[in-house]
Design brief:
about 300 residues, mainly alpha, MetI-like fold, 15 helices, globular
């Protein structure tokens, strides 16, 4: 018996069967398998996103490197690009702070008129941008309800760079609010109460408990607001004044070059905005990960 038992123990162990894994991979699903859905994904993104972007880059590449640099560094083009990205960054920063506060109020408090305020946040989504531009010009113009007081104080809003920031803040605010609000709603209030019972101040509770949880959403809202602002055209068109070298944004300059049949020059400006936006958005993502690890992700 001992020899038979030893022989049994000496046999090589059975390899695990792949049948259970195959059953998991090939079990019936509501949607088709990986290959059909992945193929549709690439087809849709290719037709809607990749092919137009590729056509833009191809049209810009018809110019030589020297000509491309000449178009970008032209005084009018450089001023328009600087204004578009600078105003978009300022508007995105303003929206990040104000939008996070609005999201906190909507998520944490119940008050009369909350539903109306919640609906007002979504107005820039539904309102045509040209209508928004007309409304902002009417309100912030030299004779507007708000703009008249600013003009009398020597700080006009309409037809200045400040007016551009106001318009971009208007169109970008909902992106921050709607990104941060669901995360705040899912926060467990018991964690804040536990931190308070352990002697943490309100600022410490915010820094150690709340901020590490919502900062990815805040960074995402900032990126969405910035991306929306960079390409904004309609709402800025009326309130900016459109003066070259002063209040002319890059999208308007692109339209101007298209009207002049300078398609290659318009493509170069568009491709420059595309690559610059991509670099900024990637930098925001890296910053988001670094801050999240420092505040919460790296803590044990």
């Amino acid at each position: 018996m001992s020899d038979a038992k030893a022989a049994t123990n000496a046999r090589p162990a059975k390899r695990p069967s792949l049948l259970p894994l195959a059953r998991v991979l090939w079990r019936p699903r509501v949607l088709p398998g990986l290959l059909p859905t992945l193929g549709f994904t690439w087809l849709y993104l290719g037709v809607v996103v990749l092919i137009p972007i590729g056509a833009l880059i191809f049209k810009a590449s018809t110019l030589s490197f020297t000509e491309i640099v000449s178009v970008i560094m032209e005084r009018r083009t450089f001023a328009a690009l600087s204004l578009s990205f600078g105003a978009s960054l300022v508007a995105a920063v303003v929206n990040t702070f104000a939008g996070t506060l609005v999201a906190w109020v909507l998520a944490r408090y119940r008050f009369y008129g909350r539903s109306l305020l919640d609906a007002v946040v979504d107005l820039p989504f539904a309102l045509p941008t040209s209508v928004a531009g007309i409304a902002l010009t009417f309100v912030y113009g030299p004779h507007g309800w708000i703009g008249e007081s600013f003009a009398e104080a020597g700080m006009p809003v309409a037809f200045t760079r400040l007016g551009i920031v106001v318009a971009l803040s208007f169109v970008g605010m909902p992106f921050v609010v709607r990104t941060v609000q669901p995360v705040i709603q899912e926060l467990d209030a018991g964690l804040e109460e536990a931190a308070s019972s352990l002697g943490a101040t309100r600022f410490q509770s915010f820094q150690r408990v709340i901020l590490p949880t919502i900062i990815p959403a805040i960074a995402t809202g900032f990126a969405l607001s910035f991306a929306r602002s960079v390409g904004e055209y309609g709402s800025v068109l009326f309130i900016a004044g459109n003066m070259p070298l002063r209040t002319e944004i890059a999208p308007l300059l692109i339209v101007t070059k298209l009207e002049q049949f300078d398609y290659a020059g318009a493509a170069v400006i568009g491709a420059t905005m595309l690559f610059a936006s991509l670099i900024i958005l990637m930098s925001v993502q890296l910053f988001e990960r670094a801050v999240y690890r420092k505040l919460g992700g790296g803590q044990s």
